[in-house]
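Hi there,

I know you've been waiting on this one. I reran it after we fixed the sequence typo, so this is the corrected version. Both the input and the resulting structure follow.
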Amino acid sequence: MKVVLKCLWFILPAYIANATPVVISHMIGGGTPIDRGKNFIDGKRILGDGKTIEGFIGGVLVGTLFGIIQALVINNYGIIVQALLLSLGAMVGDLFGSFIKRRLGLARGAPAPLLDQLDFLLGAIAFVLLGGITIPKSYILTLIVITPLLHVGTNYLAYKAGLKKVPW
């Protein structure tokens, strides 16, 4: 249980970054699509209307802000860069997941089991590792196991709260 709590503390900026665009979209009623409505060479949308500039920037900012709060709580300002990398990586990973879903012909909001739950996590982990920050292998494995469960649960709660149109 101690490892799970350490993992959650570590990854929270990415989790928060990933959840933020849903809240922003609900607050402002959409946003400007990152792909500007353009299609890829296969004729399908690059990302789709669900990936917005406002959501991306908001996710990075709010996730990083949470990292600043973490740094203040534990008096370790070195984790601010880690929080920025986790947040940015989560948002890029989520974009990559949407890109894959569009290539597969899946509509916005269509479920893609495991891709939906792990794209942002793997992006966050990749950015932190590329930034030269070491992550224990036990953390990575634990997060790969618990994130899908938490993601499904939090999405269901967001659906019930009226923040999402679908419960996944």
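Quick highlight: The chain has one domain: 12-160.

Best,
R. S.
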